[in-house]
Amino acid sequence: MEFILWIFYSILNYYLIKIYTYCMDLYFDIGGTHFRYYLFDTSKNKIYESVSEHNTSDIISELNKCISNINEEFNINTITVALPGIIKNNKIYGVNNLKLNDGTKLIEQYNSIFIKYINDGDAFVLGQSSKTLSNT
Description:
Elements: H1 2-21, E1 23-30, E2 34-41, E3 46-53, H2 59-73, E4 75-83, E5 86-88, E6 91-93, E7 104-105, E8 109-110, E9 113-119, H3 120-134
Parallel strand pairs: 1-4, 4-9
Antiparallel strand pairs: 1-2, 2-3, 5-6, 6-7, 8-9
C-alpha cells in the first residue's frame, strides 16, 4: 500500500511541477521555407527559440506534431500562429508558397487550448510596435 501511495504522489508531484514551473506561451512563425516557434516563459520573462526547415509539405500536420512534442515537456498556456496569407473563419487563403489550397481548414484547438491565427505581416507590425513602446 505504501508503494502505491508513493507512486501516486510521485506522479502527482511530476504534474504539479509541470503545471507550476513550465507555463509557456507558444508562438509560431511559419513561412515558405522555415518553421519557427518561440516559447515564452511568462514566469521568467524569457524567450526560447527554435528554427527548422520544412520537413513536409503538410504544414498542418507539422504544426500539430510540433505542438504535441512541446506539450510533452511544457504546460502550454496559449498558442498563436503567424502565417502568410489571408485568414478568415479559421481557413487560409492565398498561400501558394506553403502549398496550402485556398480554404484549407486550420486546427482550431489543441486539447483545450484555442489556437489564434494572425497574418505574419500583422505579427511583424505588432512586434515592432511593442518593441518601440517598451523602449520609450
